[in-house]
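Quick question about two entries, pasted in order.
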Amino acid sequence: MPRHVVSATVLLTDTDGRVLMLHQARPYPGHPAWWQLPAGLADPGEAPPVTARRELAEETGLHPARVLRPLAVDYRSAADGWPPVIDFAFAADPVPVGTPVRLSAEHDAFAWRTWEPFLQPEQRAWCASLRAAHRRGSAVVLVDGRDAAETATGTGAPVPPSARPGS
């Protein structure tokens, strides 16, 4: 059977609509240190919603009170030495402006921001897809960061799978 990696991501906004972004303390294979959403790989046998809550708590010290809402499932093709990655993205309820964040050693900074100025080119399609799903309030299936329906019909251009936001 083919092997794949499961990861989970959390889109967390404040009541002003800004997105919590974390800056990696160190680069990892495939790209330099960059801004990203709270995310990480699933432990063996761990369900994606549990991974999302655990990663959010580990990386930020935040514990959402309510159930995380499914936002997207993204199948990312194998690239840069990684096997295929299936990333489950969830949205949390907005937190009050000024909510304190406690960073783990994985990150050296956090900020409540708008997205575009802080994204690497490889992240843009994926983040735009998450943002659109968040605005619509409905989940979406993605392939390499793009809406799977567009990719399947040939209307969406494939994206190089070098971004690993859930890594």
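Here is the second entry:
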Amino acid sequence: MLFSLNLLGIVSVAYLVLGVFVTSKFYPGYSHSKQFMSELGASGSPTQQLSPIINNYPLALMFCAFGWSILLKSEEDFTEQLVGASIIIHGLATAFAGLFPMDRDPYTPKASLRGQIHGLAGMFVMISLIVAPCSVLFSGSYSIVFKVFSIVCVLLTLLFLALMIKAYKKRKLSGLFQRLCYGSQLVWLAGLSVRNEMLLTLINS
């Protein structure tokens, strides 16, 4: 069971890329470089109903299952518990982001209640995968190589986040920098998945 759950970390990354690509095909004129991923499920968008079904809900289940697999073997390791809990929170926030869509216009001066909840969920999506890689830096269970990898992913996340905010203000290439920002986090998640699966293979060999 743990074997398949460990792999969900990397499977979820591949699924997200495919899911966003497929969903965008049902949104006439959608631009991956100019529009946020959440705009696929925004209120009144052509793919409002389709996007959370294809993307948010399945991904939420995969993230939560992956986080749960880490908690199952965490024993009394606080760092492992924090990593697992953060990934579960990431999954739950992903589900909420799908359940409460953003406003059709991302530049609306006053977001609706659903839009505000979506924004709050998005904040937890982002922060949860900053907390998790930062946590491993204080654990003796992770190698120096993985810790350096984690630092690089976090720094890239923060860099692309700053560029995304700048692009949002200029209303230019917001989607591109959002994908690079979230992509940096997902690369770390995939790396953690591979690392955990390799450890499990070594233990069982």
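Reply: Helices lie at 2-24, 50-72, 78-99, 113-135, 144-170, 174-204. The first helix runs from residue 2 to 24. Hope that helps.
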